[in-house]
Design a protein that fits this description.
This is TetR family transcriptional regulator. The protein is mainly α. It is 76% helix and 0% strand. It is built from ten helices and no strands. Helix 6 crosses helix 7 and helix 7 (124-151) packs across helix 8 (160-181).
Length: 216
């Protein structure tokens, strides 16, 4: 084995170990929360030693931040925001709403949101990351979609951001409160499709000008 191959293998092994630690830490943090999470339990689950863990993450806070960022990155990859240039109004809203509702109400997102909210006062930067990678990212896509539709000649009442905020609130408010506050169930496929259609129909009725035929 030459030095270059050996170096690559070493980096790969190091990356794999880091991923194992992150997976173990995520499991513990999401199960018991940040405050109750034990480094000993994380090490036990990941294997190795405390010194190995601290070689990657010098503090519990640094480990939690890495877990939060890693989880949000994974959630981003499954959100699949569509190409807003090629969609008509109704089609785009349906695709966006379906993806957003599935993502926002998933166990992984809700569990992470609970921990980030609980830790926001102590670590506001985590709340900022979660907010910008989640709600802000979705709002920016939808605001841009509204602007593109307006440029195509669709008459939308109010500003693009105002319309986007109305739609997201209509879609999410019931599920987010039920999931966060009373540990309500994840919506099933029928419930998602029903709520998506209701939100889209409500938006087209309240915010899109023109005849009923034009709104379909």
């Amino acid at each position: 084995m030459n030095s270059e191959t050996g170096s690559y293998a070493s980096v790969r092994k190091s990356t794999q170990k880091r991923d194992v630690i992150l997976a173990a830490a995520r499991s513990v943090f999401l199960d018991v929360g940040y405050k109750a999470a034990s480094i000993n339990e994380i090490v036990k689950l990941a294997g190795g030693s405390k010194s190995t863990l601290y070689g990657y993450f010098p503090t519990k806070e640094a480990l939690f931040e890495a877990v939060a960022i890693s989880t949000m990155s994974e959630l981003e990859t499954i959100s699949h925001l569509p190409d807003n240039q090629s969609l008509d109004m109704r089609e785009g809203l349906i695709l966006f709403a379906r993806n957003l509702l599935k993502l926002a109400t998933s166990d992984k997102n809700i569990d992470l949101a609970r921990i980030v909210i609980a830790e926001a006062k102590r670590a506001p930067e985590l709340g900022e990351i979660f907010y910008r990678r989640g709600p802000v990212r979705a709002s920016r896509w939808l605001t841009g979609f509204m602007a593109d539709q307006r440029a195509k000649g669709i008459k939308i009442k109010g500003g693009d951001r105002e319309a986007a905020d109305w739609f997201m609130s209509k879609l999410l408010h019931r599920w987010i409160f039920e999931r966060l506050c009373v540990n309500g169930p994840v919506p099933d496929a029928f419930e998602i499709e029903n709520d998506v259609r209701m939100a889209v129909d409500g938006f087209m009725e309240c915010h899109v000008c023109g005849s009923a035929e034009e709104r379909l």
